[in-house]
Design a protein that fits this description.
The strands form five sheets. The protein has a five-stranded mixed barrel with strand order 1-2-3-4-5. It has helices at about 15-25, 50-55, 55-75, 90-115, 175-180, 195-205, 225-240, 295, 330-345, 375-380, 395-400, 430-440, 445-450, 460-470; strands spanning about 5-10, 30-35, 120-130, 135-140, 145-155, 155-160, 170-175, 185-190, 210-215, 240-245, 250-255, 260-265, 270-275, 275-280, 285, 320, 360, 365-370, 385-390, 405-415, 420-425. By secondary structure, the protein is an alpha/beta fold. Strand 3 (about 120-130) and strand 4 (about 135-140) form a beta hairpin. Helix 1 runs parallel beside helix 4 (about 90-115), helix 1 packs parallel to helix 9 and helix 3 (about 55-75) runs antiparallel to helix 4. The protein has three domains: about 5-160 and about 285-355, 3-Layer(bba) Sandwich (FAD/NAD(P)-binding domain); about 170-280, FAD/NAD(P)-binding domain; about 355-470, Enolase-like, domain 1. It is about 30% helix and about 25% strand. The protein binds flavin-adenine dinucleotide and 1,4-dihydronicotinamide adenine dinucleotide.
Length: about 475
């Protein structure tokens, strides 16, 4: 490490924002270090942050395992595949998840070596300034000090706790606990019907838990297209998720074997529910503990986010911040793209992140995905639009898959036909949404999509048909 000191760029945090920023900075020729404190069993580093260790990757691993189990139990029979004595080995499922996580941790360490990024294991704390260089103290195990002209803060986020219900990760679980439940709970409570609540609730419901989700807001998935949210609520309810909207939690009591939740339902009536485990997923808060923000005068906003301008510049010269620790959606791909853009700006280039085309995906079954504006947002803004939908029940590939729930919707400007949004619920829409993102980035019209050849039979034909539906000329519906 010493021969590369002082560094041109130091990134604090090795999550998707930080590690990608470090790789991009190194590609641009900067002597780059990345500091990260995540540690796995045995004291080894575990690069990848929340996303890799207790977020995107392990949740998708468990969603896949539980989906396979659910398909084997409920869907295989119609294919003529009979399975006797179907069972789930939770310990094995969790071990596989850990293996998937480990492969991603190791993959990032490999990418650092390949790109000549210096990795430093430990917590980075701003120590001060030496000329035009920032000095950063690093705690154990590295226990060293490094300096750099440019610093990128990518320290991420932590789960928000429910007042009066501290996480113990035995009965009251945060995202890390929800991803490591050692047995299938008979009664699983979830507070918050957001992304984590729906994904984790789905995992354990598929494995046999009775799942009750308690959501404070009176509307379900308010950020999604209304028709998508309506279909999602219908499907999740049909699958057995008991989703209670408009609730106010009034108390949580944790016992040795169970946890009791007192709440008021939407009508204001007092209710009590007892669960074996309770997942609390009510959003996340920016994480800056131990960063030494106050010491160097790094400005945080009223909610604890590092304050940045549109280009991720903080109030300190040559100090940038990206990802969950700054404003904007808490998504891995948003963090990554901010990291790339900042590295390019440091190099004098014009990195840019288009917040209007950041896709959202919820990896439930059916999957939910969207990009751009919803119809309700456009109505509120007084924008004239046309929209077209196409159901998967009319798509040949979906029928062959045996997965015909849901639809794709394209929303386009009524005057110019420019695509303003794509909203989908159904099979593999997590993959289909990329077409909507590309179309919007290139300023495509719905007619452009309608005129593009899509392979047959594919789910992507539903996107083309939705584009045709904008002009009321679907061919297969
Ligand atoms: P993080 O990933 O939080 O990484 C920050 C890193 O910095 C951590 O390793 C932390 O230990 C380290 N750190 C903090 N302070 C210091 C310090 N002072 N010194 C050294 N190291 C430090 N997003 C998606 O886009 N798709 C998904 O499917 C998805 N699924 C999710 C599922 C769950 C259960 C959760 C909780 C989140 C999910 N997310 C998903 C969100 C995603 O994980 C975050 O948006 C993303 O991880 C943010 O990246 P980041 O780099 O900003 O921060
Ligand atoms: P979230 O913001 O998605 O959902 C939180 C939900 O909890 C909201 O519906 C909110 O109204 C509700 N809530 C808040 N306080 C409450 C209370 N006191 N009682 C009952 N309900 C309450 O947050 P979540 O699910 O914790 O996830 C955090 C973030 O992680 C997400 O915003 C998302 O950015 C990211 N994530 C992304 C995923 C993806 O991209 N597929 C998957 C999982 C997480």
């Amino acid at each position: 490490m010493a021969d590369r000191q002082p560094f041109d760029v130091v990134v604090i945090g090795g999550g998707p924002g930080g590690y990608v920023a470090a790789i991009r900075a190194a590609q641009l020729g900067f002597a780059t270090a990345c500091i990260d404190d995540w540690t796995r069993e045995g004291g080894k580093p575990a690069l990848g942050g929340t996303c890799t260790n207790v977020g995107c990757i392990p949740s998708k691993a468990l969603l896949q395992s539980s989906e396979n189990y659910a398909l084997a139990g409920h869907a295989f029979a119609e294919h003529g595949i009979d399975i006797d004595g179907l069972s789930i080995d939770v310990a094995k499922m969790l071990a596989r998840k850990n293996k998937v996580v480990g492969a991603n941790n190791d993959g990032i360490a490999y990418l650092f070596r390949k790109n000549k990024v210096t990795f430093v294991h430990g917590r980075g704390t701003f120590a001060g300034k030496d000329g035009d260089r920032w000095t950063i103290d690093i705690g154990a195990p590295a226990a060293t000090t490094i300096s750099a002209r440019n610093v990128i803060i990518a320290t991420g986020s932590a789960p928000r706790a429910l007042p009066g219900a501290a996480y113990d990760n035995v009965r009251v679980l945060d995202n890390a606990g929800a991803l490591a439940i050692p047995d299938v709970p008979k009664r699983l409570g979830v507070v918050g019907a957001g992304v984590i609540g729906l994904e984790m609730g789905s995992v354990w419901r598929r494995l046999g838990s009775e799942v009750t989700i308690l959501e404070a807001l009176p509307t379900f998935l308010g950020a999604a297209d209304e028709a998508v949210a309506k279909e999602a609520l219908k499907q999740f309810t049909k699958q057995g998720l008991a989703i209670k909207l408009g609730v106010t939690i009034t108390g949580v009591k944790t016992g040795t074997d169970a946890v009791t939740v007192d709440y008021k339902d939407a009508s204001g009536n007092a209710q009590t529910a007892t669960f074996d485990r309770l997942i609390v997923s009510i959003g996340r808060v920016p994480f800056t503990n131990g960063l030494g923000a106050a010491k160097v005068g790094l400005k945080l906003d009223g909610r604890g986010f590092v304050e940045v301008d549109a280009e991720c510049r903080t109030n300190l010269p040559n100090v940038y911040a990206i990802g969950d620790v700054v404003r904007g959606p808490m998504l891995a791909h948003k963090a990554e793209d901010e990291g790339i853009a900042v590295a390019e700006r440091i190099a004098g280039q014009h990195g840019h992140v288009d917040f209007n085309t950041i896709p959202w995906v919820i990896y439930t079954s059916p999957e939910i995905a969207w990009v751009g504006m919803t119809e309700q947002q456009l109505r509120a803004d007084g924008v004239a639009f046309r929209s077209g939908s196409f159901p998967f029940s009319a798509n040949g590939r979906a029928r062959a898959l045996g997965d015909t729930v849901g639809f794709v919707k394209i929303v386009a400007d009524a005057h110019t036909d420019r695509i303003l949004g794509m909203h989908a619920i159904g099979p593999w829409v997590s993959e289909l949404i990329a077409e909507g993102v590309v179309a919007m980035e290139f300023g495509a019209s719905s007619e452009d999509i309608a005129r593009i050849v899509h392979a047959h039979p594919t789910l992507s034909e539903a996107t083309r048909e939705a584009a045709l539906a904008v002009d009321k000329r679907t061919l297969n519906f």
